[in-house]
Amino acid sequence: MTTAAPRSASDTREVRAAWRLSGALGILVIAAAGASLVIGRTSGGPTFGFGGPDLARIVLTEIRVPRTLLALLVGGTLGLCGAALQGLLRNPLAEPGLLGASSGAAFGAVLVFYFGLAGADSLMLPAGAVAGSLVALAALYGLAGRRGDFLTVVLAGIAINAFAAALTSLALNFAPSPYAALEILFWMLGSLADRSLAHVALALPLMVPGWLLVIAAARGLDALTLGEETAASLGLDPRRTQWLVIGGTALAVGGAVAVTGVVGFVGLVVPHLLRGRVGQHPSRLLLPSFLGGAVLTSVADVAIRLMPPGPELKLGVVTALLGAPFFLHLIVRARPAGGA
Amino acid sequence: MTLVARDVGVVYGTRVALQPVNVALERGELVALVGPNGAGKTSLLKALAGLLPYAGTVTWSGAALDSLASRARARLIAYLPQAASLHWPMTTRDLVALGRLPHRAFGAAPSEDDRAATEWALEQTETTAFAQRSVDRLSSGERARVLLARALAVRAPVLLVDEPIAALDPYHQLQVMATLRAYASDGALVVAVLHDLPLVARFCARVLLLDAGAVVDDGNPERVLNARALERHYRVEPLVTTHEGEPLILPWRRLTPR
Question: Is A170 in contact with A184 (CB distance < 8 Å)?
């Protein structure tokens, strides 16, 4: 086999390229986390360092470390779940936010707020968020998942988003007091500010099993590249893959939304930017998307702190401001081929 | 080893797509499933592949396929659907390598066997030349051969293919038929749904003729694809002759629709 040697070398080169990409993103994760640990913000604008040696410990453990960890965890979750949903629906426009998972989770959490249960039991908020996210994704799957074509999925996602938003508005409408309404509204904008390690402890037990479920679907996602029938003939039941991804996303995104509110578009942008670098392989895209999501979210959160003095921007507002034009760009670019 | 279908029937809602079929298919055979559109060919093929609910039993060497784990079954039976879809523009080689999924453990790198099978499948379908090209830059005929290579790469003892040559030019139709026959001669069972009767007569030693959801004949092409059968089931009048000692069967004239 004289000819096989260079070919198999090129084969491993592609796999090695995927690992190199993850390595590079890993370094960026460390850099972004470092920046997030040393850069802070007060009402007077950005601050650097820890405000003196006696304050350092408190600033780090009470403010910067939870915020940095949550940025990495939430960003990683959104990147990973975005990549998995795109693979599952075989649609580069899929994203937890666009598909209603986030708004479903938000509505679930708002209901918990609304009935005043958030304070009673700290587990109620994430439970509400996960339930909302699960219901939204199950509805999406029921409406469009079987066929999974470009337009149906996006339209179903829009419908679910609209419905969840309407229900959330209803809850705001009947909010017991203007103060409660404002609290719900601000929470929904999505932010990493003023979170503690308790929030990390709340989200992590939901995120980790969610990630594992999504990762368990990796081979099934590769097989789905060839369509549902061929995937089944390869021994990778598409229904199993579907439920792993939907269940995993509901858990992980539910956990993320429960602690940060809605942070949109990270799950759309990150897999999209990285897909070409891993040879379009759905399974090879998962780890880089996790790391890329962590980088993008922490960088966005650091950028917020670097803004000139004034009220702090909400993370969800920033990702939406950057992500929406990107989404528009994707639609415009996909349009000539979108008819197929 | 034999693939045996016993009373295998398929029903979609209230419509009977396939009446109970009894057939035994041997390793080493290239079997053609022929018949007019809607005759139940694809339903039979999918039932053999276990891809749709069916009545009856399908066994391989006496073991019911239902009892096999999905992975063991995927190694035993490779399936190529009609007009398969491709959702991400991977390279041809990466796509063909997906045929090795049933042989690879979760997270494992491709083994030497996996690589060798992928390269072999590319060579068999004459697709090595564009192995590094993205599949969205291929013509429909090239893509059809890449998809066949994906099914061949499983190296399964049973290969079920649905209209593998419909999109191909004459050169590649002959080439794919020769590949399927060679794969069968190497000891596999190959079952192909085909519409090209001249090629069926040339390459397939055994033909199952289906009509209206039933297997109406089973045998060699000279016997099954006779003029009366084609007139009755296909509503065409054929030209039946021999060329270079092999049967030449050509649909020639349309009869009045039934």
Answer: no
Tell me the per-residue pLDDT of A58-93, one tens digit each, with 9 for 90 and over.
Answer: 888 888 999 999 999 999 999 999 999 999 988 888
Does residue A309 belong to any structural domain of this protein? yes
Q: Is B119 on the interface with A (CB under 8 A)?
A: yes
Residue A282 lies in a domain: yes
CB contact under 8 A, A279 and B87: no
Question: Could you say which residues from 180 to 219 on chain A have a Cβ atom under 8 Å away from some Cβ of chain B?
Answer: 216, 218-219
In A, which residues are within 8 Å of B75 by CB distance? 235
Look at residues A275, A228, A258, A216 and name the one whose alpha carbon lies nearest to residue A121. Answer: A258
Max alpha carbon distance in chain B (Å)? 59
Place of tokens 């399974």: A283
Whether residue B210 lies inside any domain: the answer is yes
pLDDT digits (tens, 9 = 90+) for B167-191: 899 999 999 999 999 999 999 999 9
* d(C-alpha B244, C-alpha A321), whole Å: 73
Q: Report which listed range, A335-339, B10-14, B160-164, is most confident.
A: B160-164
Does ipTM surpass 0.90 in this model? Answer: yes
Determine contact: A150 vs chain B, CB below 8 A.
Answer: no
* CATH code of A114's domain: 1.10.3470.10
Q: What angle do CA B124, B127, B132 make, to 5 degrees?
A: 135
DSSP letters spanning A215-251: HHTHHHHHHHTT-HHHHHHTT--HHHHHHHHHHHHHH
Overall domain count for chain B: 1
Give me the residue from B74, B90, B106 closest to A235, CB to CB. B74
Q: CB-based contacts of B231: which residues, under 8 Å, 6+ apart?
A: B237, B238, B255
Rounded to two decimals, the pTM is 0.89
Binary contact (B75, A235; C-beta < 8 A): yes
Using a CB–CB cutoff of 8 Å, tell me whether B190 touches chain A: no
Residue B125: inside a domain? no
Q: Is the pLDDT of residue A263 over 60?
A: yes
Helix or strand holding residue B8 (H, E):
strand B2-12
The answer to whether the Cβ–Cβ distance between A219 and B101 falls below 8 Å is yes
Return d(Cα A283, Cα A217) in angstroms, integer. 8
Q: Using the beta-carbon criterion (under 8 Å), do A281 and B93 form an inter-chain contact? A: no
Judge whether A189 lies within some domain: yes
Domain assignment of residue A10, yes or no:
no
Per-residue pLDDT of A130-152, as tens digits, reads 889 889 888 887 887 665 565 67
Those of residues 127-156 in B touching chain A at CB distance below 8 A are 131-132, 134, 147, 150, 154
Domain containing B30: what range?
2-86+155-254
**CA nearest A143: which of A153, A135, A134, A133?**
A153
Cβ atoms of A187 and A128 within 8 Å: the answer is no
A chain contacts of residue B106, beta-carbon cutoff 8 Å: 216, 218-219
Please report whether residue B124 resides in a domain.
no
CATH code assigned at B250: 3.40.50.300
Q: How many domains does chain A have?
A: 1
Domain that holds residue A242: 21-59+70-334
Mean pLDDT, rounded, for A283-303: 96
For residue range B107-130, what is the model confidence (pLDDT) as tens digits? 778 889 999 999 999 999 999 999
